[in-house]
Design a protein that fits this description.
This protein is of the alpha+beta class. Helix content is 30%, strand content 24%. It is built from 16 helices and 33 strands. The strands form eight sheets. A ten-stranded antiparallel sheet has the order 1-2-10-11-12-13-19-17-16-15, covered by helices on one side. A five-stranded antiparallel sheet has the order 20-27-28-29-32. Strands 25-26-33-30-31 form a five-stranded antiparallel sheet. Strand 21 and strand 22 form a beta hairpin. The chain is globular and about 90 Å long. One of its GO terms (molecular function) is protein-glucosylgalactosylhydroxylysine glucosidase activity.
């Protein structure tokens, strides 16, 4: 991998990875594809019923490779530019340069584009011929495509998925219009430069596909197609970014993680399509038998979502609205298992019905329901947006989840507590256990949040919700001062992944520093090194809380073994196996930086911070934290913390102040007036008179 002008956001190589799974991806929240892959995927388009449900494969029109048959010697480079959201392939020789550029348009999400440009480097010469190699065929194993009439020079196919997710669910429609690529392009004698643009529009209807294709053609005619895409990415980076001084490879990893995460999200501007969540491998992956089939797990709500919320509450809202849209299925899941309320599926597609291929996970890994509630809770604490709950269906989700937990618990008279029996904890080495400590805490939080929210909305609720929350058992070993994963867990038994350590973060369950340390030491020693990528980041956050810098860095370094070169693709396991491009691992890694180094904690009354910088980072800048309608920049050095209010985002924003822990000093935050103070803990909160 080359360092291109020392820009950590640009990944360039002279060869492609030998494993095609490690190729870069382009996506925009609606369309996604892997470079030089045969298929693309469309947001919310799945084929197959229940346990066979997977992302429907749509043939990729942009799987086109360049070849120079008449040139014996040339230098080629492959580049993923995360700043512009583009992948490029360049062939350069002494007389000319050929460049292919591929992108999924960031603003006009129905459009996929590839272009080819040829630039002469000498005044005269022979015609320059470029071969375009493609095996494209407008056929799919998942969609019954039919050919329609050409439209404005573009070919047109349309069809429906073959099998609905559930019986009463309509099949998805896909309409695609694309500019066919010829077998070759030629720059004639006498021309110094030539360029060709190939456009694909994908939509749910013929009229929408035609409208999007026409809009794309208009932007090509006015030379605005690529600039509008580039500018949309520039706006994302301008308003949210992490800058690291002193650690180039950490910077690279962060840019890669943010790029792939942002690629999985819809644009900042309002869109007409219902966003259908983020799967562990993102929109570019998830075909049948691959990358968890494109299903949505707790990975979205616990591992990816907090990073989105910190910068873009409006995009976090889109994720929550996906959960609102699938409430009907969640209600049916609970009913099928003999419970009240809503049980969110372990694996979700469009309807919210359980689509996990293996029944035990769908039946027992019920912590997902508490994870969904916790995501809503963080959103409310961070934004104070009651409208989502009052008008847009958020309250119905929270109430249904509380009702589920109240029907799922069992009273234990001997222990004078409520048990939750027969579950699989996040640590999937175990099943049919009682009182998973993680599951019980998220259940407790779900009930408490429902009570708190009902009070603000002035909605009457069953009195037992609070009683159950107060009496749910949270396993704790008084003698050894640690949290067993579940009733009957034996010290020293292997665990698959982060589980009980999640109580400290992200759940922020109250405990002493000694207990926090015991949990970390006990579970770090027995966690499988073959476990999924996100695990080590949570141990790192824990050690940062305890100001154990060396221990934290040792854990964080483990994450780098999951990053595959040259395009910073994450794999679920460090040996390259498992899901790709593993956004779950990226989400955990980002949290280690965004919530670990800064010590950010989203609470009911403030955004708490307690920073810790390792020796090899001279400065860390978090740009665009979006708290209570205000955009904030945080700059951390070895000796100081600087906070600047850069923009008031919404008219109903809250006026903020900083309160330092050590001195109790208060600093009002005013736009354009940075506040600097000694390195240490404090909080950002609403101003008090």
């Amino acid at each position: 991998l080359e360092r291109v002008d020392d820009d950590p956001a640009v990944f360039t190589s002279d060869r492609l990875p030998s494993d095609p799974r490690f190729l870069a991806t382009v996506a925009n929240g609606y369309l996604g594809t892997r470079m030089y892959g045969d298929v693309l995927h469309v947001n919310g388009v799945y084929n197959g019923s229940a346990k066979e449900c997977h992302r429907a494969d749509v043939p990729s029109t942009i799987n086109v490779k360049l070849n120079m048959p008449n040139e014996k010697s040339f230098k080629q480079t492959f580049t993923l530019n995360t700043r512009t959201g583009t992948f490029s392939h360049t062939l350069a020789c002494q007389d000319y340069v050929v460049t292919q550029r591929i992108f999924a348009h960031r603003s006009f999400v129905n459009l996929l584009v590839f272009s080819v440009s040829v630039q002469r480097l000498v005044a005269s010469g022979q015609p320059i011929a470029v071969q375009l190699l493609s095996s494209f065929s407008p056929q799919s194993p998942d969609i019954d495509f039919k050919s329609g009439p050409d439209f404005k020079g573009g070919r047109y196919v349309y069809g429906e998925t073959l099998i609905p997710e559930v019986e009463h669910c309509p099949q998805s429609s896909v309409h695609m219009i694309w500019t066919p690529a010829p077998k070759s392009l030629t720059l004639p004698v006498g021309k110094q430069r030539g360029s060709w643009v190939f456009l694909t529009a994908v939509a749910e209807s013929a009229s929408e596909a035609q409208s999007c294709f026409s809009e794309g053609l208009s932007m090509i005619a006015t030379s605005q197609l690529y600039p509008s895409h580039r500018d949309a990415w520039a706006e994302l980076w301008r308003t949210s970014c992490v800058e690291v001084e002193g650690h180039f490879f950490l910077s690279q990893a962060l840019y890669g993680c943010f790029y792939y995460l942002f690629s999985s999200l819809p644009p900042l501007k309002p869109t007409d399509f219902l966003f259908n969540g983020i799967s562990p491998g993102g929109l570019s992956n998830g075909s049948k038998d691959q990358d968890y089939w494109g299903h949505v797990f707790w990975d979205q709500d616990i591992w990816m979502y907090p990073n989105v919320l910190l910068f873009y509450p409006e995009l976090a809202r889109a994720i929550l609205k996906y959960r609102i849209s699938t409430l009907k299925g969640a209600l049916a899941n609970a009913q099928q298992q003999g419970h009240k309320g809503a049980k969110y599926p372990w694996e979700s597609a469009v309807t919210g019905y359980e689509v996990c291929p293996e029944a035990i996970y769908g039946t027992q890994e019920i912590h997902i329901t508490g994870d969904v509630s916790f995501a809503f809770q963080l959103y409310f604490y961070f934004t104070q947006d009651l409208e989502l709950f009052r008008k847009d269906g958020g309250w119905e989700v929270i109430a249904a989840i509380a009702e589920y937990w109240s029907s799922r618990v069992t009273w234990n008279a001997a222990g004078s507590c409520y048990d939750i029996k027969g579950v699989m904890p996040p640590d999937e080495y175990y099943s049919s256990v009682n009182n998973s400590v993680y599951t019980n805490v998220v259940a407790k939080y779900s009930l408490e949040f429902a009570v708190n929210l009902a009070s603000k909305l002035q909605i009457p609720i069953p009195p037992e919700w609070l009683k159950i929350a107060e009496k749910i058992k949270v396993p704790f070993d008084l003698e050894r001062q640690y949290h067993p994963e579940f009733d009957g867990y034996r010290l020293g038994k292997s665990v698959k992944q982060a589980d009980a350590v999640l109580l400290g973060f992200p759940l922020m369950y109250p405990m002493s520093l000694d207990v926090r340390k015991n949990d970390l030491e006990i579970y770090e020693a027995v966690t499988s090194p073959e476990g999924p990528a996100m695990t080590w980041s949570m141990f790192a956050v824990g050690w940062m809380e305890l100001k154990e810098s060396k221990m934290a860095q040792n854990q964080l370094k483990k994450c780098f073994s999951n990053i595959q070169e040259p395009f910073k693709i994450w794999t679920e396991c460090s040996n390259g196996s498992g899901a790709v491009n593993f956004l779950t691992g990226m989400g955990g890694f980002l949290q280690a930086v965004l919530f670990g180094y800064t010590g950010f904690r989203i609470t009911k009354v403030c955004l708490y911070f307690d920073p810790m910088l390792p020796e090899d980072i001279r400065e860390l800048k978090i740009i665009g934290v979006h708290y209570l309608g205000n955009k904030l920049d945080f700059t951390l050095t070895k000796d100081t913390v600087t906070v600047e209010l850069t923009r008031i985002w919404v008219p109903q924003h809250s006026f903020l102040e900083i309160v330092l822990n050590a001195s109790a000093k208060r600093f009002p935050l005013n736009e354009g007036h940075p506040v600097t103070f000694a390195f240490g803990a404090g909080k950002v909160q609403k101003q008090t008179s």
